[in-house]
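Input:
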Amino acid sequence: MSLVIPLLLATFLFCVGVYGLIARRNAVLVLISVELMLNAVNINLVAFQNLLFPAEAAASGQLFALFIIGVAAAEVGVGLAIVFNLFRNRATVDVDRVDAMRW
Amino acid sequence: MESVLALAWLVPVLPLASAAVVAATGKRLPWGGAEVGILSVGAALALSAAIAWETFTNPGETLERAFAWSPLGGGFVLELGMLVDGLTAMMFLLVTLVSLMVHVYSRGYMEGEARFTYYYAMLSLFTFSMLLLVISNNTLQAVVGWELVGLCSFLLIGFYWEEKSNQDAANKAFLTTKFGDVGLIVGVIVLSAGMLGLSDTPFNFGETIDAAVSGELATGTIVLGMLLIFVGCISKSGQMPLHVWLPDAMAGPTPVSALIHAATMVTAGVFLLARLFPVLAQSALVMGVIAVVGILTLFFGGLLALVQDDIKKILAYSTISQLGYMVAAIGVGGYTASIFHLFTHGFFKALLFLGAGSLIHAVHSNDISAMGGLRRPMPVTFWTFTIGSLALAGFPMTAGFFSKDEILVSGDLWALNGFATGTYVYWVGIAAAFVTTFYMARAWFLIFTGEHRGAPHAADAHGGHGADHDAQADAHADAHHAAPNESGRWMLVPLVVLAVLSLTAGLIGSPFLQDEPNFEAWTATEVIEGTTYPFLAEYAAGAGVVAAEKGPSAKILHGPPTWHLDLLGIVLAAFAGAVLLAWRLYGKGLPDEDPTLRMGPLSRALVAKYGFDAAGYRYVVVPVRDRLSAWATRVSNDVIDGVVGGTGAAAKRLAGVTYATVDQGIIDGGVNGAAFSAAWWSARLRRIQSGDVQRYAGALVAGVVLLVLAFVAIR
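Output:
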């Protein structure tokens, strides 16, 4: 199977994630964009595992993908908790208006 | 086999330990430290006796041990070591024995003194210093000991420092001997400089002697070095013209005079000459100078005792005269005779001084005109003092007889080699023996016979230079007129011991001991036995002496002493004549005017001490004090202060310039500039910190993209 299609998909997902990360104002959507970028990386890991080490029993690419999914879950838990607290204190989740940590 | 000689280092160390212990804890001890001093010096004496016995019964046994305390490299090693041979053992025995006697005696004599403990610490320290000098195997260590005994002498002469005259006496002694010490140390340096390259240990006695005897050491070095070292001996051993400090040194406590200024320290010069005898025996000039100085001292020093009324000063001048005998003996090749006289003189002169201390203790005055009739109240002092006087006068069969006769015989033998100094030593020595007998008989008659005269001018006597302070003198002002009593047991036991030695110590060097072991074999080293005088054949030929005649005295050792009936007759006649004359003049008590003061110009010269003190005051003290010190003050104020002040001002100005340019300009400028630029940049760069998270993310992504592009471009 050609590697082009999974890599194109991963690139597309990553670019969407980057765009969302930079452009969206809603903090929840920013977090979702981060998840998109992480999953683009997961696709890359799985694709290259099959291409480069097809006979490997340990399947470390897939294994790393599973780790990333787990870590991403934890990360999004922390992130959402921060967003909840932000909302409670400021009554907004607009990241443009959360700029207290500046010079 | 490890002989007792290997323990010799303990002999000086014991008194040193004693000095430290007494100084640290003496005041808390029941006897104020005296017990520590007596025990340790007693132990040192026991060890010395064992060493003396070992070397006496095995003549020639020698032990040298040393370690290098300063390996300077380049064949120049400084040693701390010990050289134990018969000469060392003899000095050990003399020093520790007299020191023990003085330690014991002082327990009674110094009782009640305020500085009793300090006194004992000093005594022990002195004993250590003297033993350090004696045990030394190199000249440098000997100089250290030499200076230390000088220091102890200074401290003990000025023991009663409350009185200005005693401070002056201590200063005079210290400065006069220091003058000679300069000569000594320069001489030592000259000798060692000559030894450089010949030996790794240029100060070593044995190597210096070997090099001198084998002719490796240049003659000029020997002459210059030995003459300079002899200058040190002149001052330390009270030879003319640097004898002036010794009579004044009587300002110290009497036991100190006995130990330091009669028996041991003043003989250090003679000891050093004896130690280096094979070196100085290489030069007729050096021996001649030594002989002349010794002859002048033994005669004119003795004459000075005639006009003294202070018992201690009589003994002091007598010591000068007897030291003159020893030095003269060295100068006429009487090596054995000289150190034999050193040995016996140590005993009988210490006895006389301690006896004088006993008398002073009883009558609270140094003045013999204040004594008189002391035979009955003080029998032990009387008998022991009489024995000491007989030994000093050289009465047959006493210690002084054998040793003094041997010196005269040495002179006689030296005359056979064609040297006039030998003849002078013989005849001047006999004349001085007459003088010695006369002044001792004068003192003896005035002290012991007739009626007790008391001290009418007791206050004057105490104000005098040599007046001995008595602890009880002030406390018991009325005791001046009370009948004098015999001293206590602490003082009498040393007197008896020394009296016995004054009678018997001469026997080991007497004609009774023809075979080894005797004194000559004991104190002779291998070098001395094998050495002859290199200049002798040449000189004797020039003086027209028949070769056969110079045979017996060409060697340094003269062989065992023999009886000289002619000399015995002359000595006895001189003794009898002197005693008879003294009896005629003083036998009936103190004359109205002392006959020794009625000899016209001679008396005036003697009272003025030949003008040495006056000349010394006028030509040394006054110029040094008034002119040299004024000049030095000017130099100090103008030149040195100017240099120091100028240096300071220049340094201050330089510092000002440095401050303005380097510190303020460069360093502060750099630091401030860094701070200002940091502030300037941070004011602009902090605007990046906008707090907008998405702008950070954008910058991050842009950075990654740039890095990837750069990476790809480089590939």
